[in-house]
Design goal:
The protein is of the alpha+beta class and 353 residues long. 47% of the residues lie in helices and 18% in strands. Strands 7-3-10-9-8 form a 5-stranded antiparallel sheet, with helices on both faces. The chain has a 3-stranded antiparallel sheet with strand order 4-5-6.
Length: 353
């Protein structure tokens, strides 16, 4: 079995040409590639039989494989990694593409919120790549407009938070047994007298100082509700990140088999889950530019066998605060998508600074 780092050096010129042509054709068509197809496109005419012999050697090396009973071959994940590292020719965005990306995001950045701009970035990447565009963003620390408690059952209540921008978030909190409904009303009134125009962190600091200094007129039960209502928003790590995904429907456009549909279903399940968001950001934090994860190399989406091209972006203090990228099948147009992701991340950084 070869590895991406040693495989290229171990291939002769003919094997390199055939391997490169096979992967390029596969990425273009998504279909297994036969020896006759390769022989027609090689600059040096080789018979299909000669090409088959080389392909057999490449299969032994673990770089390509034959799916099902097809006579054609496809690259393995190891083969794709070797191709990306050693043979990939990365293209450039046209001047018009760069202008359009910067103009669309710049317009949103000056007229809308940061989240609107990042959503636009995800939309742009989705449209250009025909895959799913994804952005991991720091959660905006909104200023509060209203907070209310709604009883659900004897020991549960819904804490409803409304931001100044009109956004609404809900959390379920636990209540002491036997708490009267009037306590929830009192807790809501108390918070709304203190939190309007404040962020969650500011509101929590003000309220807790009031309670600790015993200047609060709240009884013990009401204090517990107030504390629980603020604490439920105060800093679960996953809740500090927002995942923006656009263009999921693009992933359904090119399904060739039932197993492809199952792969996409698994990917959708992964995208719906927020538990691994910080891991996605971590994939980008260790690199200055674009990182590429192919299939099982990407632990976050490994079950769906998807590839991820991701790049970090920075704030005005040059700190990495988020990541932008494209998720799709391993048959991505890597050479075209890499510069898209790289340029989009740089545009986000320029707007934020």
């Amino acid at each position: 079995m070869t590895t991406p780092s040693t495989g290229i050096a171990g291939l002769d010129q003919r094997s390199r040409e055939i391997f490169k042509r096979l992967v390029e054709t596969y990425l273009e068509t998504g279909e297994p590639v036969g020896s006759r197809t390769i022989s027609r496109y090689l600059p040096n005419t080789l018979s299909p039989a000669s090409v088959r012999n080389v392909m057999s050697d490449l299969e032994v090396l673990g770089l390509i494989f034959s799916p099902h009973k097809s006579a054609g071959r496809m690259p393995t994940e190891t083969g794709l990694r070797m191709f990306v590292d050693g043979f990939l020719e990365i293209g450039n965005l046209t001047t018009n593409e760069r202008h359009n990306i910067a103009a669309q995001m710049g317009a949103i950045g000056t007229q809308g919120s940061v989240e609107d701009m990042l959503t636009q970035a995800s939309d742009i990447l989705s449209g250009l790549s025909h895959c799913a565009g994804v952005v991991v963003a720091p959660k905006v620390n909104l200023r509060l407009k209203h907070l209310e408690f709604v009883a659900l059952e004897p020991t549960k209540a819904l804490a409803v938070m409304v931001g100044e921008d009109g956004s609404v978030e809900n959390r379920i909190i636990d209540l002491p047994p036997g708490m009267p409904s009037a306590t929830l009303v009192e807790a809501s009134n108390y918070l709304n007298a203190h939190i309007v125009g404040k962020t969650i962190d500011e509101a929590q600091s003000i309220v807790m100082k009031s309670i600790e200094s015993q200047r609060s007129a709240l009884d013990a039960l009401t204090q517990k509700v107030v504390e629980a209502g603020l604490a439920v928003w105060s800093g679960d790590e996953d809740d500090e990140k927002t995942l923006i995904v656009r263009g999921r429907s693009n992933l359904l456009d090119d399904l060739n088999a039932v197993e492809d549909l199952e792969r996409i279903r698994l990917l959708f399940d992964d995208l719906e889950s927020k538990r691994e968001l910080t891991k996605l950001l971590g994939l980008a934090e260790n690199a200055e530019g674009v990182r590429i994860f192919i299939g099982s190399e990407n632990k976050l989406f490994s079950l769906s066998g998807s590839s991820l091209i991701v790049s970090p972006y920075r704030n005005a203090e040059h700190q990495i605060i988020g990541a932008v990228g494209v998720i799709g099948p391993t048959r991505l147009n890597y050479g075209r998508i890499i510069p898209m992701v790289d340029y989009t991340a740089k545009v986000i950084g320029r707007i934020l600074t």
